[in-house]
Specification:
The chain is built from 15 helices and ten strands. It has about 350 residues and is α/β, with parallel strands linked by helices. The strands form three sheets. It has a five-stranded parallel sheet, sandwiched between helices.
């Protein structure tokens, strides 16, 4: 008896992928079949969903009471793969069944494929969990097809559930794809840790290694990272490397801040910055110069010396690239914590 499917929403570096991995571990421990996927930007869903479902169906086909349903699901997989031009390898799937799920319309074929997979799992006495990271990169028809499929699965009471993760705009994207998405999913937010949890994340591993950290040093790590998990990892690493031990001091943290920021600038921030066009970089720099966001689209355009209509395509492109999102109508904010400070350092 499954719960609602869930979409974990949060900025970059808050631990959404780690949570999905943990959910996958729990699913495996209780015997679920699972398909763990990441939606790469610009790559069709079918190309990475088909191999994952193929593996699940080949396992289900070995369960005697599920063979008939697995055969139907394999025929649907063969049809789906053919319609969307995806190779299923050398294994001959469902040769005794007529090909199904091959119309080429994702909103028709994907529900048929997933429903038949869920029926095979039910016959085998198991359940299926699909885990998809970076869901905001799915095309609209892919997201719509997934939502329709999960709606049908929920209506039929079949044992399949989805855990997705993505940037905060995902809730709006799901709602735009299908109006009933908000009833189908829960959208738990994943954010920065509170001060107590952030301090524990730093102090506990230090203590486990037989060292210690002063109260002032710990408070500085929590302050400068703002509790974001990825930044806590970076400052923890660089602080540990900086300190001579056995007690980490405030001076150690202050020195580590320089190396941690340099590492983030050249890796975490720079890789995102380098994907942008010069015009997009200028747009983000205008945002950064306005200070802490979110900012009105009009204010960003004004800072660029342009009319807001001229900046609309830039903003839309940056949303598609996962660099900014809209927390409210007409408002724009960075999806990467502290990216505004990086922009000010990068652009001068």
């Amino acid at each position: 008896r499954s719960e609602k499917s869930k979409m974990l929403l949060g900025l970059r570096g808050v631990g959404k992928t780690v949570l999905l991995n943990r959910i996958a571990e729990v699913a495996e421990a209780i015997g679920y079949e699972q398909a763990q996927l990441e939606a790469p930007e610009g790559r069709p869903l079918a190309t990475y969903l088909v191999p994952a479902l193929k593996s699940i169906l080949l396992r289900l086909d070995r369960v005697e009471q599920a063979k008939a349903w697995a055969g139907e699901a394999m025929a649907a997989l063969r049809g789906f793969a053919g319609a969307f031009k995806v190779s299923v390898g050398d294994v001959k799937l469902g040769l005794g069944e007529p090909v199904r799920a091959d119309s080429g319309n994702l909103e028709v074929d994907l529900p048929e494929l997933l429903v038949s997979t869920a029926r095979a799992a039910q016959a085998a006495g198991t359940s299926v969990v699909i885990l998809i990271d970076e869901v905001q990169y799915l095309a609209e028809d892919e997201l719509r097809g997934l939502i329709v499929a999960l709606h049908r699965i929920a209506q039929k009471g079949l044992p399949m559930i989805l855990f997705g993760a993505g940037l905060p705009q995902l809730a709006a994207l799901a709602g735009e794809a299908k109006s009933y998405a908000e009833r189908l999913f829960d959208f738990p937010g994943v954010g920065a840790l509170d001060e107590e949890a952030a301090a524990k994340a730093i102090a506990d591993p230090i203590r486990e290694e037989g060292a210690s950290i002063t109260r002032e040093a710990l408070a500085e790590v929590v302050r400068v990272t703002e509790g974001y998990p990825y930044f806590l990892q970076e400052w923890g690493k660089h602080t540990w490397q900086q300190a001579m031990g056995p007690e980490i001091s405030l001076n150690d943290v202050l020195a580590a801040t320089q190396t941690a920021r340099a590492a983030l600038d050249s890796n975490f921030f720079r890789v995102r910055f380098d994907r942008l066009t010069p015009r997009e970089q200028t747009y983000l720099n205008a945002m950064a110069q306005l200070g802490d966001g979110p900012h009105r689209s009009g204010a960003i355009a004004e800072a660029m010396g342009l009319k807001v209509e001229r900046t609309g395509p830039l903003r839309s492109g940056l949303i598609r690239k996962g660099m900014v999102w809209s927390p409210a109508h007409g408002m724009t904010a960075f999806t990467v914590p502290m990216f505004d400070a990086f922009m000010r350092r990068a652009m001068g």
